[in-house]
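From the methods appendix. Each design record in this collection lists the discretized structure first, followed by the designed amino acid sequence. Records were kept in a plain field format so they could be parsed without special tools. The example shown here is representative of the layout used throughout.

RECORD:
C-ALPHA CELLS (115 positions):
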C-alpha cells in the first residue's frame, strides 16, 4: 500500500513563505527517497528537492536557495519550507516517493503566489 498526502498549499503574497508537508505514514514501507516536484500550467513537472533516508539532499535549480527540505524517517514524512515566493512559483506541488524501483505520487497541492 502506498499513500502520499500533501498539505500546506494555498494563496500567498509575493515575498511570502509556505511550508508544505507530505504524509506517507499510511504507506506500508519507508521510502528510500522522498521529494517535491512542481508543475505549472502548460509546463512539464520539474524537480524542486529530494532527500534520501540517510539525509542526502538535492535541490533543483528552480528554487535553490529559497527552499529547505526535511524529513522524519520514523513518521515517513517530508516537508518543504519555501521562502521569498514569487508569481513564477505558482504551480501544483507534488510529493514523490521512490523505493529504488518505482516512483509514487501524491495528488498534489496548489500553491498560488499573487497579490
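DESIGN:
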Amino acid at each position: 500500500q502506498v499513500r502520499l498526502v500533501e498539505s500546506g498549499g494555498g494563496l500567498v503574497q509575493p515575498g511570502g513563505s509556505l511550508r508544505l508537508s507530505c504524509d506517507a505514514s499510511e504507506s506500508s514501507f519507508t521510502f528510500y527517497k522522498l521529494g517535491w516536484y512542481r508543475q505549472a500550467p502548460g509546463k512539464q513537472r520539474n524537480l524542486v528537492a529530494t532527500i534520501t533516508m540517510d539525509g542526502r539532499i538535492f535541490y533543483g535549480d528552480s528554487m535553490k536557495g529559497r527552499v529547505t527540505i526535511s524529513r522524519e524517517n520514523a513518521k515517513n514524512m517530508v516537508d518543504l519550507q519555501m521562502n521569498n515566493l514569487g508569481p513564477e512559483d505558482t504551480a501544483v506541488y507534488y510529493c514523490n516517493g521512490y523505493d529504488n524501483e518505482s516512483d509514487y505520487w501524491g495528488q498534489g497541492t496548489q500553491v498560488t503566489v499573487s497579490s
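APPENDIX NOTE: DSSP finds no helices and eleven strands in the chain.
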